[in-house]
Design goal:
heterodimer; A: mainly alpha; disordered N terminus; disordered C terminus; B: about 80% helix
Chain lengths: ~300, ~230
Amino acid sequence: MSAREREATVLFDAPGPRGILRNRIIGIVGIVLIVALVAGLGWGLRAQLTGAKWSPFLRGDTWLAYLLPGIINTLQAAAMSVVTASLLGLALALGRMSFSRAVSWVSTVIIEFFRAVPVLMMMLFVYFMTIFAPFIADLFPGPMVQIKPLVAVVAGLTFYNSAIIAELLRSGVNSLPRGQTEAGLGIGLNIGQTRWLILLPQAITAMLPALVSQLVVIVKDSALGYIISYPELLRSSQTLASRWSNSIAAFLVAAVLFIIINYSLTRLAGYLEGRSRSRQAGRPLQLEALNMEDHLHNQEVPLTE
Amino acid sequence: MQGLIELLQQYNVLAAFWMTIRLTLLSALGALVIGTVIAVMRVSPVPSLQRFGVAYVTLIRNTPLTLIVTFCVLGLYLFMNMRLLPSTVDPKAQLFLWAVVALSGYHATFVAEGIRSGINTVPSGQAEAARAIGLTFGQSLTQVVLPQAMRGAITPLGNTFIALTKNTTVVAAVGVAEASYLMKNMIEFSPQHLYAIFFLMALGFVILTLPVGLLFSWASTKWQVQR
């Protein structure tokens, strides 16, 4: 926050009386324009924003039957994905750092493939696989049919995010001071033991804040389940809207709920990062790129001395 | 292999990817414009604009793209019948434009953050020197800070561009005929070619994103500000 303020003030002198007046005028004009835009939109939607459209959200059954299950399904898919993605990500990271050229090459190809293909496509692919593929479709007998969309959502999110987590881990290992490796080798561990006992634990701790930030991306992407009828928050808010025909209000309520969930996760990530920054080793990774939703493309973290 | 040729004859894969490319390029342009405006607001001396910039980025970034797209198209366009173009224009074009607006508005937040991180790479001495020779905020921003910041922001902007390319698939939710929408239709009509279809469409995205990634990393070193 302080860095942002400094950066802002370095661009201009502390305004004098005329400058303050001018800034105020610009500010008022800007706010008027923005308010006019929002008001225009609100006016266009006035028929949809009346009290009657909002009153369903005051009823208990709206929340119990639609919104709460939606939130739970969203969080459930996100939680399951983050666990599976972490495991697969660890495997891919180990594979990519492997001394066997073939293993390393295969892992690299898998990581790059998962990163290049849109999450929605992988979700659709797995979803149709659970419907059409000969053996896989048989894995869901009887009432198990209902979990097909969940499986597809979790699989799609897992594939994409495991690639991100693998890259996070790898750059975490690479960004550790070289002395860590040297000390490990110095006490007689071989390189594999050094990596497993000394480097990876530190990289995993350092990755924690970034992993929580990644959860925001996972929660947002779980809304793609809407397309394959997974009853997550967006889909259940629209099911609710078809009952009360208050689509616009339902969209806005769903947006507010998503923002609350994701904003809390962002704050948690910030807190974890601040807490672990005071430590010497295993510093949190500074991945601006991660928050750009894509990640690390061509951005190797250099070895710090 | 036989199946693949059959598929390519039966479905217009190239047209779908052409739609993806058009969505990407137009949205990238829109996102760059909106994102630059938001970034400038955030570093401007006007407190209310700063706050608006922060609010926009915080709210939009934490909302799923699927929600924004369905809100714009299903909610505003189809349900409320709000049009961006005159009503004589073909509904497909109206739909396309709404999709572009939704994608631009969403990715503008990432562009704004990228440019802000680019501004952070400019040493404060540059802005101080600009102020010392008497440049105003507007002059020091456009003449000194932004040209360097844009060069420092190439990597995050490239990441956003690649993410945007992949995120155009989300507009399949509202039936824009781009790559993932076609993939869905292809699998529903020819489920026996499930695997071939997926690898064909996935390959399309690998072909679209890999060279762009290389191009941006080349550009970021080529135009790196030497310090």
